Amino acid sequence: MTTTTECGPVVFALGQSYAWLTLSQAGTNSVINVTPVANSNEGAHSLTLKTSLTFYPQVVVPDSTFTVTILPSTPPKFTSELPLELKIVKPQTATAWSFTLPSMIDEEDDPITLSADLGGAAFVKISQTNKLITIADTSAPEVVVGVYTITITLSDATSSRSYQTSMSVRDPCLDFGIPGIKIPDMTA
Length: 188
Description:
By secondary structure, the chain is mainly beta. Helices cover 3% and strands 45% of the residues. The strands form five sheets. It has a four-stranded antiparallel beta sheet, with no helix packed on it. The chain has a four-stranded mixed beta sheet with strand order 8-15-14-11.
């Protein structure tokens, strides 16, 4: 908004006072700044801008009214869904396993923190830096056969979103047993 008119300089003032609302001067312009604190100022706010003419203070200038709508902060999210189940078959030799998590985005471009509840699967590691779920050696004794619910939470400064997947660890030797060894009949 320009601070000069054909009637001379103009002075603006806001009719309301909010911590997230300021009126500043930038050269010959006035700027209304809205800097909400996410998830605490959301909603529609009716505002009034009062105007007065410096050279003609007796002239009444009608107030201008407008609405500022502050949207709620949205939590970060994965760009694609996690699989419902991660399947691991225990080999008999040392084998590493990993799963790359989908990319993460935050619509307000806030920094994202990744955390996880591994559901008792202490042998699983999650790297925020590499966005990987890993098991160093799936044949290790600490990799216990079972089904684990893994909850991964993406957070920004104001909100979070959680995802769940199950991890099933199988061992074919335990699942199906070892068939008996057939020894042919012998005659001596």
